[in-house]
Amino acid sequence: VSLHLERQQLTDAEAVLLARWYHERAESSVELSKLWLFDNRLGDEGAAAVATLVTPHLLELHLSHNSITTKGACDILAAVAPDRTQASSKPLWLRMEWNIINQEELAAFAAKQNQQRGLTVEIPEVVKAGPERGHEMNLKLSGAGKARGPNVPGTSHVRLPWLQCQKQPPSESSMLQAVKGIYRVAHDSAAAGASAAAAAVPKPPAFTPPPPPRTAAPSSLPPPPP
User: Fold this and answer.
1) Which of 43, 69, 80, 220 is the most exposed place for a label (fewest CB within 10 A)?
2) What is the pTM of this model?
3) DSSP letters of 118-182?
4) What's the pLDDT score for residue 51?
5) C-beta atoms surrounding 18 within 10 Å
6) What is residue 79's DSSP assignment?
7) Residue 80 CA to chain centroid, in angstroms?
8) What residues does 34 pair with on adjacent strands?
9) pLDDT (mean) for 31-45
10) Cα–Cα distance between 169 and 177 in angstroms, integer?
């Protein structure tokens, strides 16, 4: 069964509900082979919920154009069983481009998974299609020749096409950093000017309280006769 839920503005909460529904109501009767969840609002919590839907029979999982970070991507890879090749000769076609994933960190996690569990993850190289194709780019799949797409057999357990294409976090945006720098310089200049102006204002003299009023000394004369 292919389940299409792309472009539905789904959040992490809906992803949790989807996973719960599948496990409680549909898992015993429905074998999920393709799951389309791209162009939603999923983050790491949603990715963790989707990870519970990854079975050896799942052939395609589309999670591109969301807000998943490296943590969520690692949860997905950790859910892939190394024995999935017994159920299918095709690697899991896992689309996670245009998220917020650090490719180097995910590749390091994949290498550790390979050492610990024998999981093989392929990140296809992106190559130019040729001078006659303009700026078109293609994927270079291992052992695929000229074939492309999710139906190409392979020896890996997971393929991550187009992983190199990721969003740039706002905190790392060069334009945003430049704008912040301009405001930071202006703020520091204004603060320095205010401090200098405050230092140039003469301080008022210290307040000295007036002395207490003098009182008449008690008389030593005897009181007058009645």
Assistant:
1) 220
2) 0.71
3) ---EE-PEEEE--GGGTT-EEEE-TT-TT--STT---S-SEE-TTTT--PPPGGG-HHHHHHHHH
4) 98
5) 20
6) T
7) 21
8) 2, 60
9) 97
10) 11
Distance (Å) of CA 20 to CA 1, 49, 51, 213? 17, 8, 12, 85
Q: How confident is the model at residue 11 (pLDDT cuts 50, 70, 90)?
A: very high
For every residue of 6-73, DSSP letters joined together read: TTS---HHHHHHHHHHIIIIITTT----EEE--SS---HHHHHHHHTT--TT--EEE--SS--BHHHH
Please state whether beta strands 137-140 and 125-128 pair in parallel, antiparallel, or not at all (unpaired). antiparallel
DSSP class of residue 204 equals P
- How would residue 121 be classed by pLDDT, with cut points 50, 70 and 90? very high
Using the 8-state DSSP alphabet, how is residue 87 labeled? T
Q: Residue 2 forms beta bridges with which residues?
A: 34
